[in-house]
Structure formats: C-alpha cells, structure tokens
Design brief:
GO terms for molecular function: oxidoreductase activity. The protein is about 70% helix and about 5% strand. By secondary structure, the protein is mainly α. It folds into two domains: about 135-465 and about 475-510 and about 520-570, no CATH class; about 585-670. It has a two-stranded antiparallel sheet with strand order 1-2. It is elongated and about 140 Å long. Residues about 515-520 have low confidence and may be disordered.
Length: about 675
Amino acid sequence: MKQNDFIINILIICGWLIPLLCGISGIFLKNRKNSGLLVSGALAISTLIHSVIFFFLYKGNEIIAGIPWLNIGKLNISLDIWANDASISMALLVSFIATLVSFFSRKYMEDEPRIHHYFSFLGFFTFAMLGIVWSENLFLMFVFWELVGLASYLLIGFWYTKPSAAKAGLKAFVMNRIGDFGFMAGMGILFAIFHDLSITNLASDYLNTSPENENIFWIILAGLGIFMGAMGKSAQFPLQVWLPDAMEGPTPASALIHAATMVAAGVYMLSRTVFLYIGWVSDFIVIIGTITALIAAFSAIKQNDIKKVLAFSTISQLGYMIVAAGTGSAGAAMFHLFTHAFFKAGLFLGAGAIIYYMHQREHSESDLPKYFDAQDMRFMGGLRKINPILFVGYTIMTASLCAIPFSSGFLSKESVIKHALIYAQGGDFRFLVPAILLITSGLTAFYMGRQWYLVFMGKSRLKNNTSFKLQSLSTSDNKQLIFPIAILALLSLWIPFSINPFHANEISLFSSLTSYPQNIEYSAPTWLPATAVILTIIGLSAAIYGLTRRRISYASPTFTSKTPFLKLSREQLYFNDFYNLSIVPGTIKLGRFLEKVDMKVIDGILHAITIGTVIIGQITKVIEKYFIDGMVRMVAYISGVTGKITRQMQGGRIQLYILYAVISIVFLMLMFYR
C-alpha cells in the first residue's frame, strides 16, 4: 500500500470513530449540556478530516483496504474500506450536515432534560451512516444498515412518552424491517451463486451474466431483493407511509435523517450496486420511483403541518433519485442526492427555527385557541419579519426544491429528467416516465409555493399579533439557529456544482458512479428545461393566486376543503387507512393465532416433554436408589464380611497356619482322587 493511501485509511478510521466515541462519552458528563459541545466538536473534526482527504490527499485512485473479519465456511468477509470520489464526497456530506444539525440542536434542544441522550444518538447515527458509506462488502453494509435503522428509531421516538412519537418510531422500524428482509434474501441468493459478497468482485462477475445463463432468474431476483432494502430505507411506494409520521422526532433530527443521510442511504446503495439491476428489475425500479414521486407530491398539496409538507417532498425527491438509479445513471442519482441534501436539510432547519419561534409565542400568550399547533402553517403568516436571513435563505432553498434556474435543484433535476428521456427511447410505457416527472415538478412548485406564502407572506393570523413582546430570531442569542440555514442556502445555489447555471455534467462530478454499463453522453433538448420552468411558474402562480383569493382567518384556521380530490391529498391517498383496515388487522390476527399455537401447541408439547422427562427422572431415581445403589451396597457388604473372615484367619498363631495347610492338602487330595 502506498504511503498516501495508508494515511487516507488512518484518517478515514479516525473520522469514522470520533463521533461514536464522543457520543458515548457525552452520556457520562456531569453537565449534560456539554454533551452538545462535545459531539458538535467531534462532528466538526470529522468534517475537517474528510475535507482534508477530499481536497488535498485524494488523487482520484480507488482505494480498497482492510483486515479479515469473518470466516464461516465459504463466507469470507473482510472489514474493507472502499474509498473513491463517491464515498469520500458522501462521507464529507454526512459529517458536514451532521455538524450543522448538531450546532443548530444546541440551541433548539437546550431545555431538553435528556439532551445528552439526544447528542449521543446523533453521534451513533453518524457513525453508523459512515459505516454504510465506507463498506465494500454487502454483508458489512447490511450490518451498518441495521445500526442506522436502530439509531433512527431512537431519534424518531426520542420523546417516547408521547404516544404518537413512540408509535412513529415503531412504525418506521417495522416498515424498514420489511425492506431489510428483501435485502437479506438478495444477499443470500448472491452468495449462493457467486460465493462472494464483495461489491467490486460482484461487479466483475455480473459482466458475464447473459440471458443464456442458467442462474439468470436467481440473479434478477437477487437484484430485486437488494432493491427492496432501498425501498424501505428510502421510503418508496408502497413502504413510504413511515416517513411522514417520523416527523414526531426532534426537527433537527429530521433534517439529518430525512434529508441528507438515512433516507438517502438507499439511493447511495443503489448507486454503488447499479450493476445488479438487470432485466425487468431496472424497469420495476423506474416504475416504483415514478409512482412514489407523483403520489408523494400529490399528498403534500393539502398538508398543513410545515414538517409534513417537507416530509412528503423528501419522499417525492427520493423518487426522482430512484428513477435515475433505475435508468442506470448512478451519477445523476448521486447528483440529486447532494443538491437535495443541502436545500432539504436547510428547509428542515428553517422549519425548526419557525417552530421554535411559534413555541415562544405559545408560551408567552394566554389567549391562543386550544387547538393551536406551533407546526400548523395556518397559524403562521408574516414571518418574513422575524429574521431576514431566515426568509431569504428559506426562499432560496424553496426555489432550489422547485428547480428554479440559478439553483442547484434546477441542475440536478434536469440531469434526472434527461436520463428519463434516454430511458423513454426504449419505447412502450417509458414515455410516461419523463412526462410524470415533469408534472411532479409542477406539483412540487405548487405545494412549496403554498407553504412559502402561508408561512411568510401577509400578516400574522394570530389574534393578538401586537401583544407578542419576545425578541425575534435576529437576536444574538438565536443566531445559532440561523447560521446553519444561511450556509445551506448558499450551497443551494448553482455555484458549488457548475459554473454554468443552466447545465452540469454529473459524469464529471461523480466519475466512479457513471451510467451502467457505459457512460452516456447526451445533451438534453432545449425544450426540457423550458418546460420544467414553465410548469414551475404555473405551480407557484396557482398556489399564490389561490391563497390570495381565499382568506384564512383567525376564526377558522382549521378550515379544510371538502372537495374529494383535495381530501384525497389531505388523507395521503388513504394508504394508512388501507394498511390499518387490511394488513394491520390481518397481521394482528396472524400474530394472535401464532400466539395461540405457541401457547397451546408448542408450549403443550414442551410441557409434555417436560413432564415425561420428570417421570423418566423419577423412574431413574428409583432404579438408581434401589437397584444400582443396592447392588453397590451388597458388594460392599460382601467385601466387608469377606475381609472380616480373612482378617480372623491372619491371627499370627502358627498352629492355625499348620491346621489350614493340612485341611488344604486333604481338600486337594479329595479333588484329584479318582
């Protein structure tokens, strides 16, 4: 190994372990609030380490190094670190977003009694996510995949005394386990065929797959199983229902988990293993991503919770990334993952700052309605005045999500839809994919325009707006909430990704994750970005025009339209109701049936075996006591009597010895006498 590569590996391990070690150490600090400072510092150091690797040490060569870990039969697994431009940049993204989130959390969570637990979970989550990023082996990746699921469960259900939060954490955990079952099945099939789970080795083996291969069915099935893991983690149809409920967790955790890291883990894994998805599996991935993007955007239209709008938006944008991965363009998927990480994390933190402000109002005003909700956008309005940086930053990031020119979101969405157009050239139903993605782009502009207007425009819809005496978020004490938002807003512009604000080459950005099996150089037609911009303008205009036409007053902030179409959006297409009425009762009945089988049948068999064992034990005890022990005692008794008799024969009197000799001679003579 080259010296430079050795240094990179050492730094990777340091940047990987520091968040975990400091997170664990923070639990034992006497001053709980210092845990935030400790973990924030650890994440900042991790970000600095990854920055040094990315900008100064990494020379573009792929580095794979590690040590043996498990040897079970033919299964040989090594703890291998896989460093290339994709993994190093992803590690930098994860640690950077985690640093900003932890910095924001120190203020946002300052009054939380269990703040040390929160930061411990944050450090553990970052460690587990970096484990996915660096893993070169599918089995090792799955180990950290599960650890990420555990960490997200702890963060989503952080306020576990709140029933809805506990339920949301459990729902996320169960839904992810469904996808993970497919992941495990896929790994099992791959190992049975190739006797290897190394991603780089599998990539070379897959080059030899063809329709004539006798294992082609199982190879395709393995790819489908691996994709199921991504469906659960990245909240794809029909497993998308857990993500909106996961908003019960702390808002900064939502920014980390549901914007840049956990939900993006599925996309990252797909980009790493894009060679697996051959045959009809690639079509299936594209269909799932397209459906997810559309239904999530539609469900966001009538949501009133500021965080739920962003949650559905996350699901929709993940659908775009899944479509890109399904078309074979891992570079486009990763490009949109990166741009989305910046503007969506910023939007979540912005929503957190707004919720923080609304909670201040809630605690200071006594005449608020009983149904007041600090996260309900209908109680907001006019919040552009509380902090100009927050307003401008939120506007920039909203524009990026809506794919308005001069934003990073415009560049990455153009890349995704461009590859959807390439895919559509295959004929059949494929032409619907770019069309639906363009429609979804218009819906995105509509619901984000609605959110932006409800939150920032007009006047406050609370009754006593002038009675609020608390200082705004512009005070120095609250600037800790604004600073991360400002940074993420700047990164949501086009400049970090391309000099040209209207086009970026994702292949040059992620050279190790290009289209499979070969790079595709394709320039999008001029009508594509023009159409996307027109649909965005229509969506924004329709949202703002509709809100200006209908006044949402303080007297009726809970007004909801009874239009069936909009009710369908508000109820999230009734997916939760469908699951609660069909799958959940069936699962509960199956569980109760299995419980009865366990208690009546299995436990009965075990009890019978136990009773039989006791009876056999008692019989054995009797045999041992009266037969075995009796025989032993009899032998001992006979031996004792014999010894007593022979002892008397050895009296030391010579006359007796002569007598015994004479008797013996006579006895022998009688025996041999004929």
